[in-house]
Specification:
CATH class: Alpha Beta
Order of helices and strands: HEHEHEHEHEEHEHEHH
Number of domains: 1
Largest sheet: 8 strands, parallel, barrel
Shape: globular
Bound molecules: D-xylitol-5-phosphate, zinc ion
Helix content: 25-40%
Distance between the termini: 22 Å
CATH architecture: Alpha-Beta Barrel
Number of strands: 8
Length: 237
């Protein structure tokens, strides 16, 4: 177990986590170095297995290779079936935070997986798909470092945000305050310069941004611009 909470560990809070999914995956080393030059501290790595979601991305080998080239905090989002079978590979590869999906394993196994991840001195989060009620994860919140609210159906970058999901951020923020907890709230999918302020004001501490950055050729300027927007907003936590 870590002796610090994720909130303490990341202080000052990094503001955004950049999803590399829609970046030039053949040039990851350079992409990451450029993001670091824009003062990005957290990278969001989308692991998809072609079963839990229709898309297929990369596995632990790429995480391991990337780890050699960056000191960024690696936020690993597992969109895979049976994460309990392979999560250790991502830990050995250098993940700092493992986020698995509530929907990807039996409810009876969830607590166990949280403990196993945290036993490895790695931070642990749970993600919920748009159709999953946020109340389903209330009983785990005291054990978690982060909750990742999906604001698109997981599988692909560049989708439009589903605004119906963002109320979950508000509910989690209120639950956190009322129960004196300090897990972080992250949200993922369709976040851009137009909606990021609203997301943060609802209580999101770590918005994930992907396509809104990488659809631009000059993604470094776009990253700096989006970061500058977040600096004017008061975060909840
Ligand atoms: C979707 C992924 C997201 C996605 C975010 O399944 O989990 O991380 O890449 O990217 P944008 O910002 O493009 O929606
Ligand atoms: Zn993701």
């Amino acid at each position: 177990m870590r002796n610090k909470s994720l909130k303490e560990f990341l202080k000052p809070l990094p503001r955004i986590s950049v999803s590399l999914l829609n970046s030039d995956l053949a040039d990851l080393k350079n992409v990451v170095q450029k993001l670091e030059s824009a003062k990005i501290k957290v990278l969001h790595l989308d692991i998809m297995d072609g079963h839990f979601v229709d898309n297929l991305t990369f596995g632990p080998q790429i995480v391991k290779s990337l780890r050699k080239h960056t000191r960024c905090f690696l936020d690993v989002h597992l969109m895979i079936e049976n994460p309990q079978k392979t999560f250790k590979e991502y830990i050995y590869s250098g993940a700092d935070l493992i986020v698995f999906h509530y929907e990807s394993l039996n409810e009876d196994d969830i607590e166990n997986l949280i403990f196993e991840i945290k036993q490895n001195k790695i931070f642990c989060g749970i993600s919920i798909k748009p159709k999953t009620d946020v109340e389903k994860i209330f009983s785990y919140l005291k054990l978690l470092d982060l909750v990742l609210v999906m604001t698109v159906e997981p599988g692909f970058g560049g989708q439009k945000i589903l605004f119906d999901c963002i109320n979950k951020i508000k509910i989690l923020n209120e639950y956190r305050r009322d129960n004196n907890l300090d897990f972080l709230i992250s949200s993922d999918g369709g976040i851009n310069e137009k909606n990021i302020k609203e997301i943060i004001l609802l209580g999101c501490d770590l918005p994930v941004v992907g396509n809104a950055i990488f659809k631009h050729k000059d993604f470094v300027s776009k990253t700096k611009y989006i970061l500058s927007l977040t600096k004017r907003i008061k975060y909840n936590i």
